[in-house]
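Possible race condition, two jobs.
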Amino acid sequence: MGIGLLIVLVTLVGGAVLSAQSSINGTISRNIGLLETVFFTFASGTLILAVLINFFGSGHVLDLLHAPKLQLSAVFLGFGYLFLSTLAVNKLGVTPANLTAIVGQIVAGFIIDALGLFGGEFIAFSWQRAVSLILMFAALALIFSEKNDQAQAVTPSK
C-alpha cells in the first residue's frame, strides 16, 4: 500500500471520527448545554495533548510566542467549527450538518487553493473542481429535500 492510499484511509477514518464526535457532542449539549459541551471537548483535549506533548512532543511549545498572529488566530476557527457543528447537529441531524460543513470546507478549500492563501500552494480552479462542486450542492439539495419530506410525513396535516 502506497503512502498516498494510507493517508486517504487515515483521513477517511478521521472523517468518521468527526461524525461520531458531532453526534455525541449534540447529545451531550442537550443535557449540559452548548457552551459547556464545547468547553468540555476543548478542556479534555487539552489534557490529553498535554500528556502527549510531555512524552512525545518536540519541546517547542514556547515557540508559539513567536508565531505570526494570523496563524495563532486559527484557534478561533477551531472553536467556531466545534461550536457551530454541535449546534447544527441538534437542529439538522448528523448527516445534513456534516455534509453542509464538508461542502463549506470544500468551497473554502477551492478559494484558498485558487488564490494560494495562507502560504499554501496555488492550485487553479478547474472544470473538474467546478463539476464536483455542482455535484456536492446537488447532494446537499437531495439531503435537505429528504429531510423536509420526512418532516412533512411526521407533521400531522391540519
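Job #2 (started ~2 s after job #1):
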Amino acid sequence: MEQRFVRYQSTRPDPKGRYLGIFALANRLAKEGRLSPEDWGLWRSANDFYDAAYATPDASIYASSHAQAWFKLSATHLIDRIAFYSDLLRRHDVPCDAFYSDDPGTIVYEDDVQVVAIPYEQSSGS
C-alpha cells in the first residue's frame, strides 16, 4: 500500500513563488501583529503543541526554497488539530487548502509523521 501525504498550504504563491504552509501563514499573522490577544494565546498554545508533538527538521533540510513539509496521513493526532489554523486563516482572509499526494517529490527528509520533499519540477534545477 502506498503512503499518502497531505500538505496544508496557501492557494497562491508568495512574491518569491513559494506556496507557504499553514504554519508559516499563521506565524506570519502573529508576527505582523494581526491576531487579537485571544487568538494570539490560542495560536501560541497550538504552536507549543506541535513543537512538542514531533521533530522539526534541521534548517539545512530546507536548503532548497522549494522544500515542502507533508504530513503522513497516518499522523492523525497531528492532522486532527489543523482545524484551528484553518479557521484562523479563514477569519483573516488568508486562503489555504489541503493538497493530497501519493508522491510529493524528491524526499529529502522523513520521520514517522512527515516528509520534506522538493517537487519534481523544482528538483531538476528549474
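The chain has a mean pLDDT of 93.
Logs attached separately.
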